[in-house]
Amino acid sequence: MRNHTKKKLVYGVGVNDADYEVQSAGFDGKAAWKCPFYRKWSAMLERCYSEKSLVKNKSYADCYVCPEWLVFSNFKSWMECQDWVGKCLDKDLITTGNKIYSPSKCCFLDQKLNSFLTDGKARRGSLMLGVSLDRETGKFKAECSNLIFGNSLKGKNLGRFNSEIEAHFAWKKRKHEISCQLADLQTDERVANALRTRYL
Q1: How far apart are CA 90 and CA 100, in angstroms?
Q2: pLDDT tens digits for 54-78?
Q3: Residues 173 and 165 sit within 8 Å (Cβ to Cβ)
Q4: Which of 84, 98, 148, 151 has the lowest CB atom count within 10 Å?
Q5: Does one domain contain both 38 and 116?
Q6: Which residue from 41, 54, 53, 55 is spatially nearest to 9, judged by alpha carbons?
Q7: Pairing state of beta strands 131-134 and 139-146?
Q8: Considering the entire predicted model, what is its pTM?
Q9: Could you report the per-residue pLDDT of 72-89, keeping only the tens digit for each?
Q10: What is the DSSP letter of 9?
């Protein structure tokens, strides 16, 4: 059994039980290299348990990490079995509204897919998903980014509508179509299944 008592807890909760150095310092004293598994693990802990981070991003206020993943080696063993290279750790796709980081709830998503799934609440304000107000016409505009054709995250105009609900349903229909296409490209079947049902 590894001795967990010699190292300081990471963000007050995490046990770094690695049997190797997880980072090395550069000439300026900052980390020149950091183990990719440790980087993901420590970033996850930071989001949930760093007071400084929680002040900046209040959406993580109620989030926490399962007991198993508070030990680095357990998280690393799971991550080594995932398709993780160049991807973001996600806790929301498999179970919408999920607050716990755990093996059954988390997956890895590439950055563009992660952006495609973001609801853009800060930009839309109080309007429904996919909807903005066209101030010139007074109508509601529906837009949906498309990762399949042209690999673009730029909003594609779906038209202008007399009501907010009409615009929202136009967005939702297109979002579902694209999600199903994206599902066919995934290596994680859990991600594929979640994409096929997310916008039904």
Answers
A1: 11
A2: 999 999 999 999 999 999 999 999 9
A3: no
A4: 151
A5: no
A6: 41
A7: antiparallel
A8: 0.84
A9: 999 999 999 999 999 999
A10: P
